[in-house]
Amino acid sequence: LGPEQLDKIEDILQTDLMEVGVHCVVLLDTAGNIIADFNNNKEAFDVYSLAALAAGNFGAVSTMAQLIGEEEIFLLYHKGKKENIYFSKVLADFLLITIFGHDLSLGFVRLKVTAAIEKIAKILGA
User: Fold this and answer.
1) Which residue spans within the chain are E strands per DSSP?
2) Which CA distances in Å does 119 have to 2, 5, 106, 112, 123?
3) Buried b (16+ CB within 10 A) or exposed e, 60-95
4) Contact between 56 and 87 (Cβ < 8 Å)
């Protein structure tokens, strides 16, 4: 990624996700390397451990999907007592992690994440 692409992606993450109330958003590659991340600074997240575990989790679930005949898994969702985590695949090589509270509905977050992914995919040349 070049600096111009990264700036555009960061603008999308900030405007389309953080400004609507998401607590944390992380774009990473499938190996767990962080490309961009934003946090509302109200919650403390170890973003590096989160990225590594998310990449491993997505890889494991994708392998399980193949065992049952699915080619690929495009999203994962984990609901917690305080926070929810929504994982989405961005093209073939990237993942987007979105952490949000119960003040935002899953449907709203899915809508905003889908729109952000479409914009990011265009920047990445897909």
Assistant:
1) 24-29, 34-39, 75-79, 84-90, 94-100
2) 16, 11, 20, 11, 7
3) eebeeeeeeeeeebebbeeeeeeebbbbbbbeeebb
4) no
Q: Amino acid identity of 81?
A: K
CB 109 within 8 A of CB 90: no
The residue count of the chain comes to: 126
Please write the tens of the pLDDT for every residue from 53-72: 999 988 898 889 899 998 87
pTM: 0.91
- Per-residue pLDDT of 87-110, as tens digits, reads 999 998 999 999 999 999 999 999
User: What pLDDT does residue 32 have?
Assistant: 93
